[in-house]
Amino acid sequence: MRSRFFSTKQLLRLIPLTALLLSACNLNQIKTQGSASDNDMQWQARQQALKKISQYETRGAFAYIEDTNKTYARFYWQDKADERYRLLLTNPLGTTELDLNVMPGVIEVTDNKGKKYYSDNPAEMIYQLTGMVIPLKNLRAWLVGLPGDATNFELDANHLLKSVTLPAPEGDWIVTYQAYDSSTTPNLPQRLELKQGERIIKLKMDNWDIQQ
Fold this sequence. Notes:
It comes from Proteus penneri. This protein has about 210 residues and is of the alpha+beta class.
């Protein structure tokens, strides 16, 4: 294998080019924390557009990866106003593995045997039944590209949410947006990853059905 070496003059010419490339990379992201986003009018307009979505449905691929628990499924998420939402997980054969229905005053989970459970804490119920830790409260916002309760987040050059960091007792939740669906108005996430320590949740949305 041929080794390649650079002379001092060549290195001096490379340094400005490297600096230029690094500067170009930095232009593709806008770091925003806390109230700094108040000055970004495009981000403010995008938030308003997202909050006008009265209900939506999305489906796709779900992966939960942890040392002692690895789950791969298809998911269906339906979200309506007034704290109404549904999360359905099915196996490759289409059989229900978990069906969560949240309505005002009623939270119901159906397991893979058809048994129904009721509680006032859906995230805790899912953990007891499956061992999966899912931040449902903020996931509703993260799914559509809003930071939820997080005040530490980053936007990209298109004023779309790029990453979110939310403190939690077991460690920060870090959400990374890997792709957006440009066919929707407003643009909605297509792939995102949630990470808390060694715990990883991956979501890939195949399509969106939204109503405003």
